[in-house]
Fold these 2 entries.
Entry 1:
Amino acid sequence: MKAKKRGLIWFKNDLRLHDNEALVTAQQECSEVLCCYCLEKSIFENHELGFRKADLNRFRFLEQSVTNLKANLKSIGGQLVIGTQSALVTIPELVHKFQITDIYAEEEYASYELNIVRELQQKLPETEFHFFWGKTLYHKDDIPFTIDKIPLTSKAYRITAGRESEPRKTMDIPKKLNPVKKVKATKFPTYKDYGFTPKEYKNAKPFVKGGEDAALERLEYYTFKSEELTRYRWSRNQSEGMDYSSKFSPYLALGCISPREIFEKVQAYEQEIKKNQSTWWLIFELVWRDYFTFKSMRFGDQIFKTKGYKNRHYQWESDPAKFRKWCGGKTGIPFIDAHMRQLNQTGFMSNRGRVNCASYFVHDLKIDWTWGAAYFESKLIDYDVSSNWMNWHMQAFEIWYTNPVNQSNKYKAQDFIRHWIPELKSANNMEVLIPWEYRFKGYPEPIEIYPKWNRAINLIKK
Ligand code: FAD
């Protein structure tokens, strides 16, 4: 017999029914459940650098994902209440109105989210909270390190974790939820409540559609349907198109898909279709994602600081005019500008693009790396605290320079550049990589051409 618990399932970055321990446990332990998602209005406010902390593509992608969750919950009898201001407002209201005894939610790891959880616990001393770790491929209790001993190099983490840990099995979707009576599902709020204009909203076109359905469809497509996974190892460094890489990151960021679901699908693919370097590499990338999560937990808020967790002091130049050019895709360096324009329009950028834009930002423009990380946070539909800030940190402090002129040639980015920079549409394959040598109407002069690029420029001209 179930105890007379009345549960609230608080969805956050776990916007899915499959493999969701909070959902499964609440359904098992409670006689009635209420489902809730809360937007945090403050994340759409302005950053001191002059852009929104989270911009419209993120809002749109979230809207699609939460709306899909609402429909999927309905199909098993659940009603999703959507809070519009903050969990700190909506959840206490729901707890008191519906006599909620227990709250079930995914466990958080970063300070902004943890502070909300702590404040909520203080507001609701009578309510029992249950948290479940669900973000990573390996459960944080199953890795062979305590968080304070997470290694400083990914290799040291990966090899040991890979040898000694196993992902847990995915959980089934509950067949039926028993909802708290008289609770009505509510609509996703309008963009206007967050200060976006109709024009901005209309123009926002996230790179992929949000939601668990779209995520599972993408997983099926990338594996069994198209078998694109087989060539991932060799295509993953490109920049243009849907299939050179998995595009799982936006879904992982909001938890529309669980990493263990991906793992099990890849295992099945290896058994039935092909096991090769590509299938290994995709899982390797998920392990990277785990590593950054655990490492960010080890260093806490130091990962957001200009000096980083190593407390390194650099003389950043941080010229605001250069920063604005970089943000707008107007540096005059086509490989950088094409990627930044793609990011601004779609909320997505390839890994190759991110590496180049970040490296150019810190090593050539010499701007405080936290400004770049904040801008990516605003724009990326796959924004993930640890993946974003730890990758930026790595570009700033731990990794060698990436030459954007050389890379544009190496990765044959001509068509990609012509696609995103209309001013260079008519440029030939040589001109489009080094347009400052030829002049193209309307395309900006480069901020600076560095002598260290000479070799790459001469190679293109050959
Ligand atoms: P695939 O190549 O198909 O990889 C599969 C999955 O592995 C990805 O979905 C992602 O979850 C994970 N993964 C791959 N590379 C990395 C990596 N370097 N670090 C962590 N996880 C990785 N990724 C985010 O998910 N959110 C971010 O906010 C983010 N910011 C970044 C900022 C910078 C400066 C850099 C260099 C990288 C950043 N990345 C971030 C990592 C990476 O660029 C994206 O995960 C990847 O491009 C997403 O495309 P995909 O899903 O097709 O990746």
Entry 2:
Amino acid sequence: MTSYLAPAPQPSVRVRAPGKVNLSLRVGPVQEDGYHPLVTIFQAVALYEEVTATQVPVGAGVSLTVDGPQAEQVPLDETNLAWRAAEALARFAGVEPDVALHVTKGVPVAGGMAGGSADAAAALVACDALWDTGLPRTDLAGIAAELGSDVPFALLGHTAVGTGRGHLLTPAMTRGEFHWVFAVREDGLSTPAVFRRFDQLSLGEEHDVALAEETPLMHALRAGDPHALGAALHNDLEPAALSLRPELERTLALAREGGALGAVVSGSGPTVAALARSRQHALAIAATWTAEGAADTVWCTTAPAHGARQFS
Ligand code: C5P
């Protein structure tokens, strides 16, 4: 009789990081470095990217596989933010970047919900655990900011005020749970292209971005008042996204006709976010969008949600 000993599985770490919606996004004129100064209120939503980091032999380098909705749209090479995150962490910590990364998508691709940024945040936390580099969160946040403006928020989660490029964060106080529904398009929008259209439309000129404008929104969050929050939703990039995708006007209008407490383009779009009274109400708005062909897919969820966190 032969006995068979299965090889021991390689150690691996799994991390989830959330997508986001900008409750408010105020954008100033483009700076010399090509970026726009922002004042934004981020809220993490309970749609998660999952990154599994698995140990590989020394010298194997980074590899990447992806599954889940729209996975075929995601690059599998060193341009992927998760891959870049692993390499950036290895450089910072002085270790070899040897890891097999697997991403399971749970956030729309190129939808204005920072799915790629969530991959980067999750990859940072996963590799930090796998390689036992044990960096403090402040170091991870510094590496995150180099990778992209939204990556630090995907690490932090919950609700936060973002300034600078969106990477300087202050947690915001909130109460209760909010119900969101998202109208997602297969055909995403490029964030730089939306910012370029914003510049072409001169939307940032003579426009100072200031946190003072967010007082009603911050009150709504502290009170846990979804009606007041819905009324305060705002996105300076919305006219630019609408000019590139005029059909989004109808998606917004359908949500409002369906009694949404507020409806707004999420970040640089083309995802449209609608705030609902309840899960039932979110499902009703989703059904209207689907029936009217106003979205390729509809995603219902709650917020706020936690930041990048290991779960096995
Ligand atoms: O920081 P990140 O790589 O995510 O930004 C992608 C692009 O979005 C930038 O290259 C820039 O064109 C635009 N952007 C901007 N101002 C910001 C954030 C992003 O113009 N505050």
